[in-house]
Design a protein that fits this description.
five-stranded parallel sheet, four-stranded mixed sheet
C-alpha cells in the first residue's frame, strides 16, 4: 500500500533572524513581529483541517513570545530546535555553538516538558561540529541538508573534501536526515530583502509557487511507493493574506490527492521502520 507523507514545517523565527543579521532598526524588527500574526492564522488553518505540524522555534522566540509558543504546544504540534539566537553554526566556534544549542534546548524543555528530537540549522548551514553535537545531545533527526528529496537518509560525519581530490564519503551516523530544499521554502520565493550588497527579489505569485509545490508531491506519488515531502514556511512570510489563501488551496489539493500529514518526529519513526 503506497504511503505519501507530507511534513508541514514552520520556522517561527519572529525577530531573531533580523537581529542575528544586525538589522535592528524598527522596520525589520516589525517584519519579524508580523510572525505573531502569521502564527495565529496558521494555527487556525491547521486546526480547521485537523493537521499537526512541526514548528522549529528559536529559544529567542520562546523567551520573547511565550504566549504565542504556548499556543503552538496547546494545538498539539511538535516543537523542534532552531538554535537560540538564529546565528548560523558555521559562523560560531564549537563552544559557542554548543552553548547556544543547550540554552535553546532548555527553553524547549521548559515549554514542552521534553527536549527536542529534531534540529534545523538557522540558514541551513551546518558547522563541522554540528553533527557531533546533535548526536551528543540526543537528537534523532536533522532537517538542514539537501542530499535527497523524498527519502530520509542517514547523516554522515567526516566526509573528506579537498580541492583537486575526489570526494570521499564519511561514516553514516544514527542521525536521520529529513532533507529540505530552497525550492520548497517560502522565504526565497516571497521575501523582498535589500541589503547594501544584494537584492533578493521575492514577491512571486503565491498561486504559482503553491502549484509547483503540489507538482513536487505529484512527482513523488508517481515515482516512489513511500516517501516524505517537507515544506518549509515562516509565519511572517506565509502569513500574508493572499499567501494563506494559496496555502489553504495547497492543503486541500494535497488532502484530495491522498497525502498523509504528520509531524517530522512521526515521519522519522516511520522512516526508521521502513528504511533503516
Ligand atoms: Zn529560521
Amino acid at each position: 500500500m503506497p504511503r505519501h507523507i507530507v511534513c508541514l514545517t514552520f520556522d517561527f523565527d519572529t525577530q531573531s533572524g533580523f537581529i542575528a543579521r544586525g538589522m535592528t532598526t524598527p522596520t525589520p524588527l516589525s517584519r519579524g513581529e508580523f510572525g505573531l500574526v502569521g502564527a495565529r492564522r496558521i494555527l487556525t488553518l491547521l486546526k480547521a483541517h485537523g493537521l499537526r505540524a512541526t514548528w522549529f522555534i528559536p529559544g529567542f522566540t520562546i523567551e520573547s513570545h511565550p504566549g504565542a509558543c504556548a499556543d503552538v504546544v496547546e494545538h498539539g504540534h511538535e516543537v523542534a530546535h532552531h538554535s537560540w539566537a538564529h546565528v548560523p553554526p558555521a559562523q560560531q566556534s564549537r563552544s559557542d555553538e554548543e552553548a547556544d544549542l543547550i540554552r535553546a534546548n532548555d527553553c524547549i524543555e521548559r515549554l514542552t516538558g521534553r527536549k527536542a528530537r529534531g534540529y534545523r540549522s538557522p540558514s541551513w548551514d551546518l558547522s563541522a561540529s554540528t553533527i557531533e553535537l546533535l548526536l551528543a545531545h540526543g537528537f534523532l533527526y536533522d532537517s538542514s541538508l539537501m542530499g535527497g528529496d523524498y527519502w530520509p537518509y542517514r547523516v554522515r560525519r567526516d566526509d573528506r573534501v579537498e580541492l583537486g581530490k575526489p570526494f570521499l564519503f564519511g561514516e553514516e551516523t544514527s542521525l536521520i536526515e529529513m532533507p529540505i530544499s530552497w525550492s520548497l521554502d517560502d522565504y526565497p520565493h516571497f521575501e523582498f530583502v535589500r541589503t547594501a550588497t544584494s537584492v533578493l527579489p521575492g514577491l512571486q505569485s503565491a498561486q504559482t509557487v503553491m502549484a509547483s509545490w503540489m507538482d513536487e508531491f505529484r512527482y513523488m506519488q508517481a515515482n516512489v511507493d513511500w516517501g516524505v515531502l517537507t515544506y518549509t514556511m515562516h509565519p511572517y512570510v506565509i502569513g500574508r493574506g493572499y499567501r494563506m489563501l494559496a496555502f489553504e488551496r495547497l492543503i486541500k489539493d494535497l488532502q484530495a490527492a491522498g497525502a498523509m500529514f504528520m509531524t517530522m518526529e512521526e515521519a522519522v519513526a516511520e522512516a526508521r521502520e521502513k528504511m533503516f
